[in-house]
Specification:
The chain has 308 residues and is of the alpha/beta class. The protein has 2 domains: 36 residues; 228 residues, 3-Layer(aba) Sandwich (Glutaredoxin). Helix content is 52%, strand content 11%. Strands 1-2-3-5-4-6-7 form a 7-stranded mixed β-sheet.
Length: 308
């Protein structure tokens, strides 16, 4: 009887003991959840979230395209032909092309600023029909055989040619000429080369050449070097676009381009850009490395020999 009473008491005390033990253990309080949403409500919420994501993605794409387009348009804008915008080419015109009297001639343009070169530094056309800048009496003459559509030529124009003109051509230590070929760009480069020479009839050969190198980096050449693209470029540069297109349509400089090809072949040129050098009045040309160290040393050596 006593044993049964004891078991009854133990059974009665067990729940209380368990409750006390539960309170003494470090269990977190039971999480209470609110009533769940219906499937339709969850679907609607998901659709709302996805719509927000789509809107954010769409806005991001629109902004990105706007920025790209703005940069593209900026890349396509050209400077006007002036000493302010192109100080590196701001020297008097001397022409001397016997068969095309207007090409880089003094009569076609009056400089709107002081010359950037030493006395004697001019823009002229040499005996090979190559548009050249520098002092014709310099001890060394350099030309680069180049193609407007050639990426390495574009790099040379940006990284080497500008420094070369600034440090050696403008001080009268060397001359520099641009021989245009069309190995990379084919007929498009040929059109651009003709257009650059036609621009020379308005005293803008070097300026338009610089624009062609720049545009070829940001646009497809079939756009940049099309007749309409060249017309727009001439307008942007404040040139007589009708006169330039008329000149371009006439193909009047075809034999100049053929002459450049022959000149390059005679000089052993097999790729672009290639630099050729000639000393004094010899008109004998040979290849030299186009790296900056070789170019500077070659020019300094030629000037040192003349000073002896």
């Amino acid at each position: 009887m006593a044993k049964k009473q004891t078991q009854a008491v133990e059974r009665a005390e067990a729940p209380a003991a368990k409750a006390t033990a539960a309170r003494s253990m470090p269990w977190p309080a039971r999480v209470k959840f609110e009533g769940g949403k219906t499937r339709a409500q969850r679907k609607k919420q998901l659709e709302l979230q996805m719509n927000i994501i789509y809107v954010v993605i769409g806005l991001t794409l629109v902004v990105g395209l706007f920025i790209i387009n703005a940069n593209w348009q900026n890349a396509g804008s050209a400077k006007e032909v002036s000493c302010v915008d192109y100080p590196e080419y701001c020297v008097p015109m001397a022409g001397t092309a016997a068969d095309f009297a207007e090409l880089e001639a003094a009569s076609v343009r009056t400089l709107d600023g002081d010359s950037s070169g030493e006395e004697g530094v001019v823009r002229y056309v040499d005996a090979n029909g190559i548009a050249t800048i520098g002092d014709p009496a310099a001890p060394i003459h350099l030309v680069v055989v180049s193609d407007f559509a050639c990426p390495h030529c574009q790099d040379f124009h940006k990284d080497t040619m500008s420094k070369l003109i600034d440090e050696f051509v403008m001080p009268g230590k060397a001359t520099f000429g641009l021989v245009m070929v069309s190995g990379t760009g084919g007929p498009y480069s040929e059109t651009a080369s003709q257009a650059a020479l036609c621009a020379g009839e308005q005293g803008a050969f070097w300026e338009m050449s610089a624009e062609f190198f720049r545009l070829a980096e940001s646009k497809q050449i079939d756009e940049a070097f099309s007749f309409s693209g060249i017309r727009d470029l001439a307008k942007d540069m404040d040139m007589d676009s009708d006169k330039l297109i008329e000149c371009l349509s006439s193909n009047k400089y075809d034999r100049y381009l053929s002459g450049y090809q022959q000149f390059s072949s005679d000089g052993g040129v097999s790729g672009t850009p290639t630099v050729l050098a000639s000393y004094g009045s010899t008109n004998q040309w040979s290849k030299i490395n186009r790296d900056w160290g070789t170019l500077t040393q070659t020019i300094e050596d030629a000037n040192a020999r003349q000073a002896e």
